[in-house]
Amino acid sequence: ERALLGVSLGFLMNVRVVYFVEAYHFSRIASFYCWGFNALLVSGWRFAGEVVRSRASGARAQRALVVGRIAEAAALRRMLAESNHACCEIAGCVETAPDAIRGGEQDGLYVLGLVDELRDLIKEYSVDLVIMIGPNIPFSRILGMGGRFGGASPRFMLVPELRPGADGEPVMMIDIHPGGMIGTNRR
């Protein structure tokens, strides 16, 4: 971690000063103690923050972006809500239509951007899940991005058909990875 590297470099500079300046010879052990406390405090509070953040994110529903037409995204959100299965919180839609307008709205769901902006939208909205719907999905562009989403590594899912199943059967979603299809989930 960079914090630990910074503390260690500061320690080395401090030891050099202590070694070459006579007035500070008495404080070599103090330099070592300072390094230890700084290493624990600086990197320790960051580690504790990560633990707290990961526990908090485990309690919240996954944030999702829907790639497809806004009407399909709104219909999917409605179907997921009706199936009483809150697998995710849909943050918005990434439109596949080239003439789509950012900010367009349907049933309280907004168009956040176009497919070319997907990488930035994933980072901006802290997305855990990307759900792709419809026949006009540019798979090669989306999956070609691979894992290049900054610090984020969202899951990708495909909804092959956007229709409710018989007798309230949940929506079928297929897990997709850059290497190919892995499995199916019903939500």
Polypeptide structure, described:
The structure is a single chain. By secondary structure, this protein is of the alpha/beta class. 41% of the residues lie in helices and 24% in strands. The protein contains 5 helices and 8 strands. It has helices at 2-20, 28-59, 70-82, 118-124, 139-144, and strands at 62-67, 88-95, 105-106, 109-114, 129-133, 155-159, 172-177, 180-186. Strands 3-4-2-1-5-6-7-8 form an 8-stranded mixed beta sheet. A hairpin with a 2-residue loop joins β7 and β8 (180-186). α1 (2-20) packs antiparallel against α2. The longest helix has 32 residues, at 28-59. The radius of gyration is 25 Å and the shape is elongated. The mean pLDDT is 75.
Structural key phrases:
187 residues; alpha/beta; 8-stranded mixed β-sheet; 5 helices
